[in-house]
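Lecture notes, continued. The same structure-token format from the folding unit now serves as the input rather than the output. Read the line below as a description of shape only.
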């Protein structure tokens, strides 16, 4: 089973630099998750204010809009693509991540597979 995890940090924490110790702990967690095959890919996302693209299809017409866009109420700070054996495993992995990342939330979207 694959899941796309979208992490949204708590608003109070946004933009707060993390300590070297915290970065090292997250690095160890990411390395271990990649080594075991649970973590397929991960990355941080820049805020909308830094510019982004919106590609839209409406009745067959494609439009591309350059950002930056107005700030969203909730900023998705990062993503992870996870491969797990069960729903329980993805929840446990996410709990471990949040214990390191701190306050915030992670949306888990199961990816359709053939």
């Amino acid at each position: 089973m694959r899941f796309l995890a979208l992490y949204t940090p708590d608003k109070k924490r946004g933009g707060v630099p993390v300590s070297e110790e915290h970065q090292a702990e997250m690095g160890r967690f990411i390395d271990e998750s990649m080594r075991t095959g649970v973590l397929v890919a991960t990355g941080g996302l820049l805020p909308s204010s830094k510019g982004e693209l919106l590609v839209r299809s409406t009745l067959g017409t494609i439009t591309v809009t350059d950002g930056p866009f107005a700030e969203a109420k909730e900023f998705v700070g990062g993503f992870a693509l996870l491969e797990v054996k069960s729903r329980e495993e993805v929840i446990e992995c996410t709990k471990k991540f949040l214990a390191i990342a701190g306050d915030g939330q992670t949306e888990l979207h199961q990816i359709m597979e053939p």
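Point for the exam: The helical segments are 20-35, 87-101.
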